[in-house]
Amino acid sequence: MPLHPDEFPIDADLAASVVRHERPEWADLPLMPAGGGTDNVMFRLGRDLLVRMPRTPGGVASLRKEREWMPRLAPGLRMRIPEPVHAGPPSDAYPVEWSVYRWIEGAPPTTDTVDDWARFGADLAGFVAELHRIDLMGAERAGDLSWYRGGGLREPESWMAPAFAASRPLVGDVLDLDRLEDWWREALALPDSSAPHVWLHGDLRPGNLLADGGRLAAVIDFGALSVGAPDAEHAAVWDLPPAARRAYWDALDLDEPTWLRARGWAIGVAISGIPYYWETFPEFVAECVARLAAILEDG
């Protein structure tokens, strides 16, 4: 089932055909599905390559950002990030751009792939600190680098009340949505961050982190790359176990207002995802519910 109203039908046969047409030297490499997120469908190509195809026309800008900025950000990061190797053009078979990257070994963080959650949280904090220290190189919060999560909490305010209302009949029996909405509004009432604008990954959910050898090994999918205030960057730590959250907080030495605004972002993003993906992406809905449950447990 499509996740979005304007989604392209994408399968392995289509991916193989566009690769074969554009890069005939890769035509004999095996191609197999490698999962997908809300914006892209992915296929592993041979041993060393990954094909990413946007689900919708709006996903193209994210790939362009990665192709422009990943080579410029990589020297400032110890962690592996996506390495674009080919820009695929639109065609009759598939009407928008697509990209090919180097394959990165690893798997999302789970109890099977991470053996020390405190160390994992510190690893993630180290990546965030490095990314936020990289010079902006003239980039500004404008155009494709002005995604809403780098702004203030008032940007998503208009759709929060409808999202809470739509979520109540869906998950109101398992989550204390009144309490979560109170916390969201408390965060909204805080002054916006006065921190300087920095580079933001924008979506550090577990699906965009790769663990290998028990530790964080790579951060992927920079489609939400933007410039802005750092508050929302910290929201995804509620997707990780408490030991990882505590280590992350300690490593970055975050003050309480920043943490409360980050919690507000964590609530807002999750509550928005529940009704939007309820029928189409139950795995993502489960992530959102688990994040909100973790926030409630933290108190």
TrEMBL record:
Gene3D superfamilies: 3.90.1200.10, Phosphorylase Kinase, domain 1. SUPFAM superfamilies: Protein kinase-like (PK-like). InterPro entries: AGP_Transferase, Aminoglycoside_PTrfase, Kinase-like_dom_sf. Residues 33-265 form the Aminoglycoside phosphotransferase domain. It holds the Pfam family APH. This is Aminoglycoside phosphotransferase family protein.
